[in-house]
Amino acid sequence: MSTDLDESLVRDLAQPLVAEFSPAEQDELFAVLSEAHFADPQAYAREDARAAPLTFGLPEMTVLLTPVMLAAMDEAVRYVVAKAFAKGAKVTAAAIRRLFGRVPAPAPAADPGLTLTSEQWSELRQIVERVARNGGVPANQAGLIADAVVGQGRLGRDAS
Amino acid sequence: MPNRPGPGAAPAASLTRFVLLIAAVIATSGLIFISDYVRLPGRADRLSTTIDACVAAQDADAGPADEVSRRVQACMNPIIVDWATFVGGGLVLLFGLAAAAYLLHPSWIVRRRRLRRLTVDGQPGLVGDLDRLRRQMGLARSPDWRLAPYARTTGGQAFGLPWHRYVQIDAGLAVLRVTRPAEFRAVVLHELAHLRNRDVDKTYFAISTWRAFVAVALLPYLVFMLHPGLLSAPLDWRWAEVAFVANPGGATHRLASLVLLTATVYLTRNAILRVRETHADATAAAADGPDSALPTVLGRMPEPPAWRRWGTHPHPRRRLDAIRDPGRLLGAGFWELVGVGIATGGVCANLGLLAGSIILVDSRLAVAVVGLVTGAVAAGLLAAAIWRATARDPSAVPSWRTWLLFPLAVVTGYSAGAVLTLREATGAAITLPAPTTWLVATSVLAIGAVFLAAWATSATRGVLRRPDSPRWTMPAVVAVTVLVGAVWFAVWLPPAQLEAGFADGWGAVPVAGAEIGWYAWVARVTGADYGPLIWLVANPLTLAGLTLMWLVPVLAGLGRRSPVPVRPALIAGLVGAAGLAVAAIALPYAARLALPEPVRTATDEDGVPFATVYDNTVLAMASIAVAVVMTVMAARRGPHRPVSALLAAGLTTVLATAVVSYLADPIACYVNVTAACGDGVPVRRLGARAHFIALQAILVAVPAMLVAAGVRRLTTSLRDAAPADAAPADSAPADSAPADGAPARGRLAVVATAATLGVLVVLLVSLSVLMLPAAYRLWLERTFG
């Protein structure tokens, strides 16, 4: 998969999660935040709270779920691709979309399908939760996000 | 909105602090560069050689003293020009660097924070909301909205140059637009308020100036303290040459001076940033209306530690107070004025000494020039502080903080700054004055500063109380404060540098008549010679300044409500002059009765002749007449007492000069009391007489007026405590300006009053012009020939 394809795929996978967990970031804000995320994929885990002249704001920080979701889905896709390559399976963007329940239509006949075991889903869940926690997401919300990612994948798989 | 337009629109605190910052940076950096000069390769040797050669030439020169001094000046000029070029170059470099940093700050912020442009096409909802808030704030032009996509903070930041403003919206804040719109609005309006209040340029230039100061002045100076030969022999560092080892006492003094001056610069910078935040809060809350979420946001801010009181952001409690009472923004701080004094003292002590010792032939003139410049800046900042403090509630009786504490804060800071030095403790080190000398000099300075502040407070209040005051009036009041303060300080500074600069000299006792106690006392008192006074007498700006002190407030009130009560002052002046005339007529007869003829006719070659005692006595009587008139005016009620007192003093001075010159002298001749008749008074002497009369009167009148004002306040308080329906304590008395439709007689009186004032101004200006030749001789002849 090319980098462009990766970004497009990750964006597609993350966007519904952002819409679900942080509606304020969807649409116009999601576009600019995702663009910034791909320019610096590690920035989501850094705190950018430097004091400067003529700055003013609320004392608390906000959790930005767009870069967190993008980072989590990026890690998730990498995990899936690595597992598929280990099995010698061919990985396509469409297959990954189907795996995470984003393409409800059935796979073409030639597509052998992309599956994860229960253990692998569990491992994937931990990856998503870890990335979310790194991005400053509270523990309970990180768990819910991880459940949503895995649940959608499993649900999508079961549905197909 | 705070700080309404018109004459009541006091200068923002950040403006005066910005001026103070620039002044403090110039002062401190200038002192540092003066010190750094000798670190340049070969400069110390060249300076020392030049001074030795010039002094040797001076010793060998047998010409007239002034010409010798001029030749020494010419001998020193090349090295002084080199020195001044280095200092000037250093300042140009510093401010050039500051300007470059300021000009580059937008692109630096955009790049460092990787800001992304928000556009109507890309983010229509967000930009639409932002533009609505921009219009709500009254900004005609939209800033360049930028998103900080990596910022989880929920804030914003205004920055940019006058032709391209930016407002940064943190990604966290953009989220709040949907989740907590009221708080989003409050934060954005706060940032837009910075644009509306024109904070951006002052703020970022202040920061750039501080950074350039650290890089160009502070750090090199500290490095030179550790390695004095860095530029001449960089690899030849010796422990014994480190300033703290070679001269521990001097190095500690210099370091302490540097710390104090640097603290002044740094804290002034922070004060600018703090006041900008508070001002923006007040503006944003006013724009957002009563439902603004700003108080809620500020209320949630954590309590900062105590040491951050002087940091870049104000305490949340102060910010809330400013929202509830925007008048607080007009308050001026005691410490701000102490900083003004410290910067002034540091410059005067260091530059004054340097200029006086080697730059100009006439050291008094050199020190006075330094005093003129620094005094102007300090007086201007004091006037601005008084303006702000008075603008908060012009109808209220002025607080003692304004007219007493403010000038004393400047004087206190000056006293601290005057002991600072950044130069090596070589031949030109600062020496501390004797305690008595210091006390006398400082007291004289404090009395002058309080007098000036009291006048400025009164004039400011008089202007601000009138809603219809012309726009020029407050700048004119500040300008007069600057003029008078600068002249006064320029005259005060040279004797303040001397051990006995303010020592007074009583007049000599006449040999003939010395046994007559009261006569000897009169001769001593009326012949007292107070050295510094001559520098105000031979000064065309003295009477001119005193004239402006009443003329500006009077002109500001002409044809308006609540004008300065002119006629009582004129009547008081006439009565005072008439009393003097009576006394001047009676004096020769009294002298003939009280003193035997041998005393009156003694020529007294070795002592003081009676004629001199007599002339001095007449002048003293004239001064007392002026002082009494001023005191009577100060004891009246109403807000214009200092102005009225000065107006009355001006008229009485002119009339007293005429009485002394054209009545007292002929009468004395007629009565033959002095056994000598002159050929009349030359016109050129009128100026000197008028100046002596006015200045001696002020010396007596200042304490008398303070006592009179205090008694007036006391009696007013007692009367107010009584149940009687007395007039308000501070209400202006009924006065001259007739209402529309007033009878023709009233209009005639106004015309007569205006004509009298016009003639008075012409006469006072003429008396000032008459002092030009004497002023040249005293101030400039030694230098310019």
Can you characterise this structure?
The complex is a heterodimer of chains A (160) and B (785). By secondary structure, chain A is mainly alpha-helical. Chain A has one domain. Chain A is 62% helix and 4% strand. The longest helix of chain A is centred in the middle third of the chain and has 23 residues. Chain A is elongated. The two termini of chain A are 24 Å apart. Chain B is mainly α. The N terminus of chain B is likely disordered. Chain B has 26 helices and six strands. Among the domains of chain B are: 91 residues, 2-Layer Sandwich (Zincin-like); 200 residues, no CATH class. In chain B, the strands form two sheets. Chain B has a four-stranded mixed β-sheet, with helices on both faces. The interface between A and B is large, with 36 and 53 residues. Strand 1 of chain A pairs antiparallel with strand 3 of chain B, so a sheet runs across the interface.
Provide a brief overview of the structure.
The complex is a heterodimer of chains A (160) and B (785). Chain A is mainly α and 160 residues long. Chain A contains six helices and one strand, in the order ααβαααα.
